[in-house]
Design a protein that fits this description.
By secondary structure, this protein is an alpha/beta fold. About 35% of the residues lie in helices and about 15% in strands. It contains 11 helices and 12 strands. Strands 3-6-7-8-9-10-11-12 form an 8-stranded parallel β-barrel, surrounded by 8 helices. The chain has a two-stranded antiparallel ribbon with strand order 1-2. Helix 5 packs parallel to helix 7. It is globular and about 80 Å long. The site of ligand PBG has 9 residues, from loops.
Length: about 350
């Protein structure tokens, strides 16, 4: 029976005061929790981890408080702990001790990420999803995400798209051979997903999944990450020639469609907090899982403001992660993963 107001039958319709009183469902934690539309779950979080070749002790990263460059051994310990905390996945980034023009450490079977993937596959097996970032910027002496078509110091030089695809295919096979369950191309080259899918399938890795950084924007929020991987882009360059322009959202759907047509299993939007509209648009557009990368600059802002006592770290952290999930991300890559698993679950 509907309640009545002034003798009229009157359903509880939002805004129909006084019948509708949204505050009724906000009266207690239990009620609020019962009707919450969005829940964070540690199983959806991916912890980005850095491993550096040739160091004996983990190295702190000044601009990413609480995050370190791991040694091979400290990485193993970290991933075992993350697995027991219920973290869904880890994504590895390598910092090689020597870099060159094509970034060959990225596909060397003895390259740092390949060695670590093999360690981790033995340690945690299928208990945690092992992902590898697939790009060459950490491995090239010029810091670009692909091979160059001219001298690094020439302003007319650009990244050679198709020559880079061949290298990405080799990296994918090296990572899959070493034990990666998911490879994650982040270089924003056209055709990269197709090149990687073909290379994997040809090498017998048809079960290795691809999480494509599909809508990856040329963002100023990657600064601390570049400290973490010791990358400086040659001659004051930038990535605007291959990463997306942040004024565009429809273009993100073009990139997502292209990646899905080429065989992506998961599509990603990056960064996350400044691109919640893009996450929502991609979520509405596709039926595959959507990932979002809460990037280094977003994390660093939280750490800096809370260190100054200007905001409450834990409250803002949960609010931010919830916003990313609410916008439509199924999977969140975040440097907060361990903190969340330890304190919020
Ligand atoms: C490229 C890559 C970058 C990030 C993830 N993969 C850097 C870039 O595109 O310059 C940034 C992640 C972050 O800022 O946390 N390999």
């Amino acid at each position: 029976m509907n309640p009545s107001v002034n003798g009229l039958r009157c359903p509880v319709v939002a805004g129909n005061f006084p019948v509708s009183r949204p505050r009724r469902l906000r009266r207690s934690d239990a009620l609020r929790h019962l009707v919450a539309e969005t829940r964070l779950d540690v199983a959806n979080l991916v912890a980005p981890l850095f491993v550096r070749e040739g160091i004996d002790e983990p190295q702190p990263i000044d601009s990413l408080p609480g995050v370190v460059q791991h040694t091979r051994d400290s990485l193993r310990a970290e991933v075992s702990e993350l697995a027991s905390l219920g973290i869904g996945a880890v994504i590895l980034f390598g910092v090689p001790s020597t870099k060159n023009s094509i970034g060959s450490n990225a596909f060397d079977p003895e390259g740092i990420v390949q060695l670590c993937l093999a360690d981790l596959a033995g340690d945690v097996g299928d208990r945690v999803v092992l992902m590898a970032d697939l790009c060459v910027d950490e491995y090239t002496d010029h810091g670009h995400c692909g091979v160059l078509d001219g001298p690094a110091d020439d302003p007319n030089t650009s990244v050679d798209n198709d020559a880079t695809l061949e290298i990405y295919g080799r990296i994918a096979v090296a990572q899959a051979t070493a034990g990666a369950h998911v490879v994650a191309p982040s270089g924003m080259m056209d055709g990269q997903v197709e090149a990687i899918r073909t290379a994997l399938d040809t090498a017998g890795f048809s079960s290795t999944a691809i999480m494509a950084y599909s809508a990856k924007y040329a963002s100023a929020l990657y600064g601390p990450f570049r400290d973490a991987v010791d990358v400086t882009i040659a001659s004051g360059g930038n990535r605007k020639g291959y990463q997306q322009d942040y004024r565009n959202v429809r273009e993100a759907l073009v990139e997502v469609d292209a990646d899905l047509a080429q065989g992506a299993d998961i599509v990603m939007v990056k960064p996350a907090l400044s691109y919640l509209d893009v996450i929502a648009a991609v979520r509405a557009h596709v039926n595959v899982p959507v990932a979002a990368y809460h990037v280094s600059g977003e994390y660093a802002m939280l750490k800096a403001a809370s260190a100054n006592g200007w905001i409450d770290h834990d409250a803002v952290a949960v609010e931010h992660l919830t916003a990313i999930k609410r916008a439509g991300a199924d999977v969140i890559l975040t440097y907060l993963a361990r903190w969340f698993a330890e304190t919020q679950q």
